[in-house]
Amino acid sequence: MTAPKLVVSNLGKTFRGDRGDVVALNGVDLVIGENEFVSLVGTSGCGKSTLLSIVAGLESHDQGTLTLDGKPIRGPGLDRGVVFQSYTLLPWLTTLGNVEFALLAAGKSRKDARDIARSHLSLVGLDGFADRFPSELSGGMKQRVAIARALSYRPNMLLMDEPFGALDALTRHHMQELLARIWEQHRLTVLFVTHDVEEAVYMSDRVAVMSNRPGRIKSIIPIDLPRPRTYEMTGSPEFARLQRDVLSEIRAESIAIAALGDALV
Prior knowledge:
α2 runs parallel beside α4 (139-152). The chain has helices spanning 48-56, 95-105, 110-123, 139-152, 169-186, 197-203, 237-264; strands at 4-15, 22-33, 37-41, 63-68, 71-72, 80-83, 157-161, 190-193, 206-210, 217-222. The protein is an alpha/beta fold.
């Protein structure tokens, strides 16, 4: 692995509530290298999104430490770009305006913001849609705008929480290929949450499998497939083997949940 970019050590998070506390994460250890693409997978409710939100600075943690480029993460920052499953576009702004908005907030001049926004819309293949409003765009196009916006202010790390989960299968594949191409060109550090094992194997350098709640990193599977990635690879024996390896780790956690349910009956 390359030099550490993100270091998460003994991280814990408990949600307090009137009906009792819920320990979401306990003892999470994860190191992501510079320019590395790492996917988080696991059973539903294992804490994948919670972990990503803590790294984004959108959620607090109760124990442990996390650093980006050696500096503690204490809240949101422009050193991290975030893309969610929901597009979070401002409906009253055009495609160009949505990207400019992030740049202006980052302190860019109006001229620089416009130039950078146009170049990033071109990067995601939306050159001809700068003046369209979100209501005039398909789901895949909206997500392209969200990716362009997150990349526009050049964050040190990109955090993505099920970014393609709401898209149809064909659009999802197109978006995966687009993101893979952008990663190849710009070599970003990416933490990517997904429930789709094929997507995780296709996109990643490593896949981190989380345990059932309280979540921790149960195992990390290196994805030793050549780059650039192509969809022809998904039919190869090596791809199938890696997919089985990840699925077997997740399945073991699912069986443990089922066994616990049986024991409580």
